[in-house]
Write a structure and sequence with these properties.
Number of strands: 10
Strand order of the largest sheet: 7-4-9-8
CATH superfamily of the largest domain: Nucleoside Triphosphate Pyrophosphohydrolase
Order of helices and strands: EEEEEEEHEEEHH
Number of helices: 3
CATH architecture of the largest domain: Alpha-Beta Complex
Radius of gyration: 19 Å
Strand content: over 45%
Shape: elongated
Distance between the termini: 54 Å
């Protein structure tokens, strides 16, 4: 590659909503060729691996329109502009499941699709403690709470039964805390 740099010549936003924007960049490649490049912009999201004192993981089953099917995944939701992802993780866990996060700990932050999007997934784990007040779902959320033994969820992640990347990564993330779970 000559100088190795791509040059953005122009940027046109073709769609925006409160959660994301889609833009088309006009780009000059290192060899001089010019192309259009589509980019999905997002403030990202926080996902949390909530494990109860009994060793169950708390998951949510919800409809995912892009896939046109229900998925089983970690509680997660958008990080508002300027919001601390740790705060978003605790809020989303409570809103979607009614559980409070105790000992909320960051695992990692990863880009979800580097060739298509600016989106970052901030991944956390915590002890899940029942609040007693129940979930606080948004009008667009239709969620079923699913509690299962952590080991069963890991088996599902390893077998491909779970396809959400953040869920698979969170469940398979190594750490000493796994040895502290009830067997």
């Amino acid at each position: 590659m000559e100088d190795g740099s791509w040059r953005t010549l122009g940027r046109d936003y073709v769609y925006r909503n409160p959660w994301c924007a889609f833009r088309v960049d006009e780009v000059r490649l290192p060899g001089g060729m010019e192309i259009e490049y589509g980019v999905l912009e997002s403030d990202g999201f926080a996902a949390v691996v909530p494990v109860t004192d009994g060793g169950d993981v708390v998951l949510v089953r919800q409809w995912r329109q892009p896939l046109e099917k229900f998925t089983l995944e970690l509680p997660s939701g958008g990080v508002d502009s300027g919001e601390d992802p740790l705060t978003a993780a605790g809020r989303e866990l409570f809103e979607e499941t009614g559980y409070r996060a105790k000992d909320l700990e960051s695992l990692t932050s990863v880009h979800t699709s580097t060739g298509r999007s600016t989106e970052v997934c901030h991944l956390f784990r915590c002890r899940a403690v029942r609040d007693g007040r129940g979930p606080r779902l948004e009008p667009t959320e239709h969620i079923e709470i699913v509690e299962m033994p952590f080991g069963e969820a890991v088996r599902m992640a390893e077998s491909g039964e779970l396809s959400d990347a953040a869920t698979v990564l969170g469940l398979l993330w190594p750490g000493e805390w796994l040895y502290q779970l009830p067997h």
